[in-house]
Design a protein that fits this description.
Elements (H helix, E strand, L loop, with lengths): L2 E5 L2 E5 L28 H4 L38 E3 L2 E8 L2 E6 L7 H7 L4
Length: 123
Amino acid sequence: MAVYRRTGTTLIVVTSHKPNMTCPVCGGGVEGSTDTYVNLVCDDCDDRAVNKNGDEPWHGWPPGEEPESEDGTIQMAPDRGENPVFIDGKKCWRRYRFGGWVTMYDEHDCDSLEEFYEAHGMM
């Protein structure tokens, strides 16, 4: 999404969903791809994320589903994980990719990650 602003004779193109993004949970600074993802939470808040049962969310292989490793091979975990997650009682969604994830606050109480993406014009 691009926003065009005119300052005098200069046209400025802002490509971020929320320029100068702050964490929607604590109000602190956010690092990461604020041009690509909306409502990113900061690393400190992300460290407190839990699943619906209050446990640490899984990522990679779901519990009990990691295959047996074979000699001479390296088994890479898939880019998937638990959704939604909760930080201080606030619902968030994680986008798992490249062995990690980004966590985004859900102010709309969406039922799925896809619905969250649609609500924010990300699909």
